[in-house]
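Input record (Table S2, row 323):
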Amino acid sequence: MSAFPVTRLRRLRRTPSLRSLVRETKLDLGDLVYPLFVCPGEGVEEPLEGLPGIARRSIDLLCDEAEEAARLGVPGVLLFGIPEAKDDVASEAYAADGIVQRALRALGERVPELLLVTDVCLCEYTSHGHCGLVRDGEVLNDVTLELLARTALSHVEAGADAVAPSDMMDGRVGAIRGALDGEGREHVPIVAYSAKFASAFYGPFREVADSAPAFGDRRSYQMDPPNLREALRECELDIAEGADVIMVKPALPYLDVIAAARARFDLPIAAYNVSGEYAMVKAAAARGWLDERQAAIESLIAIKRAGADVIFTYWAKEVAQWL
Ligand code: PBG
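Output record (PBG complex):
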């Protein structure tokens, strides 16, 4: 390669059309999934202080929001439920008439073209807020698997197109695959939150989902943030158990994990641009410290450049309007 002055990289940066021609990574609305929170009641839309622009909605208003997202071209949503009541065994997580199950039926009727993905976890449904069953202060693994599998199956029976287990119990992808296949649902994909780290960036989400653990924290099951090689082992095991898509979460502080997973695995990779990543930009933008649109697009492009195919983001609807 000849050096300066023959080579001048600024030549291709001079105009917007030149920059567009040589742009290596593009943001595509078709890659985005929009998280939604459904709560009991009717006519409820409860905006959240820590997550500007995002609200908990009762099924009727959830359907309006989902319809608008679909109209704007957002291909899919990720559903989280805030149940009427919580208990020790997360009964509403797998109840046939649970909040997510009812929302799925309503969405299937109102917005049939929209892809419905569900978050499969117990933490929004347990009285203690942990992602699994608890005995003597320990989060139990193997007995939790059966409840996760029941939850996933009940979502699919209510119309979920894909299920996304986010609990980080060992063996849950295999348990869910087995349960789905046992009921003739072998065509339903599993989007596994494979490398999910015990992160401070979930803060605003836990306010929305009312799922902060009542005691302790999630470090005995979610991953230790410094570990990259272990993240790849998590991905490898989920793939072996039948994951169709692997996910890294959060996204921006873990771009190296996304890139390493991209280099090693040929499955589609998803990344979750979580509540704290979104809230930081919103908060700074509200003070006039940065431009939200540019910061959001730059963040999402970075996640794609690292190697993600699918991005779960609270900006999905806004991106649809920006692009
Ligand atoms: C449930 C779950 C969480 C998130 C997605 N699924 C919270 C947690 O693990 O504490 C976080 C999403 C976000 O912060 O946007 N286990």
